[in-house]
Amino acid sequence: MQSVRAAALDAERATEAVAVAIRRALKGRALSRHHLGGAVKRGLPPALTPFCRGCRARHVPLSLMRAAGARSGVVVAGPGDGEEISFRLADEWLGTKMPKRVSPEVAEGELVRRFLRLYAPTTVDRFAYWSGFSPAAARAIWQAMEPEMAAVSLAGGERWVLREDLPILARAAVAKGVRLLPAFDPYLMAERDVICPDKKWHREVWKVIGWPGALVVNGLVEGIWKTKKEGKQVALLVRPFRKLAPDVLRGIASESRGIALFRSVPSVDLRIVSSL
Question: What CATH number does the domain containing 166 carry?
């Protein structure tokens, strides 16, 4: 943002200018990241398109594109030309209107509500990790919402839920079935001690770099997996944390058919391995 500051543009004005450019570029069409960047920079002041030494070209800084993309309502709309993902305006793609602009306080409160509906019972520390706010900022937003929360006991500690969701959570059924969740699936952002009670496996599931997929059995993480391209074939490597029951193995085989469909191959070579 150094070039923005040099041109005496504050972050709000810079973000709004790029958001307007994004909506103009995507109106009625889908664009790849490369083509979107090229279309957006046309008409913007030089301060918002500094020279990038890595790309050896002028473009809007990635951090500013991300902030403006969220404001302008951009979604990933699947593959476009070739295999590259494309971007579209959410209101055009979904056929809905963009929500009205609200105050930061209202938006922050709604963010906490949505987080709790996804991951409660949970804590303010998990909210900070999930949202990207600093611990201090997350705590301030969280405290403002505490009148809508109720404390519960889980995993030997205090957790929080939305008060209005207590009846639903009280009668919730235990998850059943086998799932091969992809890396960074939203479910894997839940309380790690709850969905994977044996902490010795945490470093395998939540690696510092490059998460694997997760084998989830009846709501608990019971292993990890990844795919491997071998010529025209795809191998599915599953590393369970313990010996698997026959019904779980059948569930994994069923899930593998979805991966084959996603990878556009007739089938995948399923292998149960001792390490990835």
Answer: 1.10.10
